[in-house]
Amino acid sequence: MTVAAAPATYRTPVSEEIDAFDLEVEGALPPELSGDYIRNGPNPRPGETPRHLFFGDGMLHGIRIAGGKAVAYRNRWVRTRAFVENAPFVRRGKIDLTVAVANTNIVAHGSKLLALVESSFPTTVHRDLTTGGPYDFDGALKTPFTAHPKACPQTGELHAFGIGLMPGALTYHRIDAAGALVESRPIPVKGPTMMHDFALTRSHAVFMDLPIVFDVVRALLGKTPYVWKPKYGARLGIVKRNDPSVPVRWIEIDPCYVFHVANAYDDGEGIVMDVVHYKELWAKDAGSFDPTTLRRWTIDTVAGRVRETLLDQRSIEFPRIDERLTGAPHRYIYAVGVGATGEGRTAIDKFDVVSGSVTTHDFGPGHVPGEAVFVPAASGEDAGWLMCYVYDAARDRSDFVVLDASDMSAQPVATVHLRVRVPLGFHGNWISDDANIA
Ligand SMILES: [Fe+2]
């Protein structure tokens, strides 16, 4: 008796690496776009079932755009030591930071393109999606490295952090514009929590010590090692970017979880920080994601208080902004809808946090978008494009879609039809040909 394979969904991994050229374009790709949109995400190898989505091997999906044409699409697993050698993360009781799944993000900085997962060193990759290897900034990096480093548009620096599995093991890293790791500052922290993102203003970094706590016993039993422990409490740690002598200022907040910060900025003596907020996370089941809301934390650094404001009720994830405004006041946030039980919504929302209005691009039934990346076209905060992959359930294929960020109700500027499925992943970026990638 043969067992029919379950029908593919927008989450089903792909089993092959392919190259496709001269792709079909509906609409018109902006001729000024010249570069690669590359998105990362977990894609377990055939026959492998990781204990959690977060542990699947990273796969990059890249589309090359130049001269108004969709020149090529290719997908490649990141050939980490975990992928190639099945190298263990822990050897003789010691964590090997050169072993990664590199499945969360891909960023360009200095002359490097880095595939990132928060538990390990970065992995260098190339525009053609081939893998270099683990990268420790020429020996300077001694900790894991977040998948959400932030480039400061004012200084050109890349700010990042690493958190280890021992209490107190949070380190704030600063990489200069040329790509050298120039500062690693230990930040005392209470416990080993899942710290996925942080906030960067023009003068501060803000760390989120939230109650998803690492549990070594569960890790040893092969279970998802992070658990919701509201009794751990929740606090924000405010750090002065340019003065390591000023101790971190911890301010208590109500227990919650935040994977992603949309943006943050200084406001007088305070800090404003917009986040995708989970009231609780994985309280019952680490395989599911609770609904979110978009919230604003207004941090009073003098009184040591945080005021929380609901900006919008709808459940979203993967917030992005015009990153020319990282650390400065922003007006627009773009985010993708996620259903309450993890089913994909079909829309990308644009939040105007000044007027409170929300405009939406709905791709229609069965069309599930991933994270939408903003690519600037001109001066003006929403003068640019949104790029994302959109899964079409009826065809079991994906499209690469370019929207006009200033007009969410318009038809896509361009839709590139792929002959393959791009499963829902995590984060991607537009790597312009102007980026000086070696
Ligand atoms: Fe993330």
In short:
The protein has 438 residues and is mostly beta strands. The longest helix has 5 residues, at 81-85. The protein has helices at residues 81-85, 216-220; strands at residues 19-21, 24-27, 35-42, 58-66, 69-77, 90-91, 94-95, 105-109, 112-116, 123-125, 131-134, 150-151, 158-163, 170-175, 181-187, 198-200, 204-209, 212-214, 226-228, 234-240, 249-253, 257-267, 270-278, 293-300, 305-312, 316-320, 332-338, 344-352, 358-362, 367-369, 373-376, 384-392, 397-404, 414-417, 428-432.
Structure characterization notes:
With 438 residues, this protein is an all-beta fold. The chain has a domain of 148 residues. It is 2% helix and 45% strand. The strands form 9 sheets. Strands 2, 30, 31, 32, 33 and 34 form a 6-stranded antiparallel beta sheet that branches. A 5-stranded antiparallel beta sheet has the order 1-5-4-3-35, with no helix packed on it.
What's the arrangement of secondary structure elements?
Elements: E1 19-21, E2 24-27, E3 35-42, E4 58-66, E5 69-77, H1 81-85, E6 90-91, E7 94-95, E8 105-109, E9 112-116, E10 123-125, E11 131-134, E12 150-151, E13 158-163, E14 170-175, E15 181-187, E16 198-200, E17 204-209, E18 212-214, H2 216-220, E19 226-228, E20 234-240, E21 249-253, E22 257-267, E23 270-278, E24 293-300, E25 305-312, E26 316-320, E27 332-338, E28 344-352, E29 358-362, E30 367-369, E31 373-376, E32 384-392, E33 397-404, E34 414-417, E35 428-432
Antiparallel strand pairs: 1-5, 2-34, 3-4, 3-35, 4-5, 6-7, 8-9, 9-10, 10-11, 12-13, 13-14, 14-15, 16-17, 17-20, 18-19, 20-21, 22-23, 23-24, 24-25, 26-27, 27-28, 28-29, 30-32, 31-32, 32-33, 33-34
Residues 104, 147-148, 196, 259-260, 426-427 line the site of fe (ii) ion.
